[in-house]
Fold this sequence. Notes:
Blueprint: E1 2-7, E2 13-19, E3 22-29, H1 35-53, E4 57-61, H2 70-88, E5 92-96, H3 98-106, H4 113-124, H5 131-146, H6 155-181
Parallel strand pairs: 1-4, 4-5
Antiparallel strand pairs: 1-2, 2-3
Helix pairs in contact: 1-2, 3-5, 3-6, 4-5
Amino acid sequence: MKLLSLDQSLNNTGFCVFDDMKLLQKGVIQPKIMGVERLNMIRQEVNSLIDKYSIDLIGIEGYSFGSNGMAVFNIGELGGVLRLLFYDRLIKYIVVPPTTVKKFLTGKGNSKKDLMLKEVYKRYDFNEDNDNIADAYVIGRFILAVEGLDGDINKSQQEIIGKFKKDQDGRQKMVKNENEAN
């Protein structure tokens, strides 16, 4: 399975591409433009990664509800643009809340960036200075574990995955019920 994991950001979108458990590429998309041109550039870069690696599944970090100001609207637009791309391409994607990503790696849902970088190195021997790439890597490992491809998980991580799957099942049932009502 080819997986693209994204830590979406307007200035530094981190990404990792996996072929099952093998990391094929990591990087960051850093647009030097603003507005709709920036959204389009990120969309094109992600689309190119989908084409280049024949991506089967995408993992993205969910919205940060702690953001404020104009950043909320701008990152929301990016999230919508990317989700529409995945929809248009008929590619399944899984949204992972930021607190789940942090808890999966560190055991705490409110971990700071420096702890995340330290823990991703300790746990996975993944040495990365860019926190966006490190987050994308952890999102990828989380999705691989959810899909049953990463067996190197501890009991706490198994519980986090179990809760995530249960929450996902509940959301899918809710959407199905809403669709049946219409």
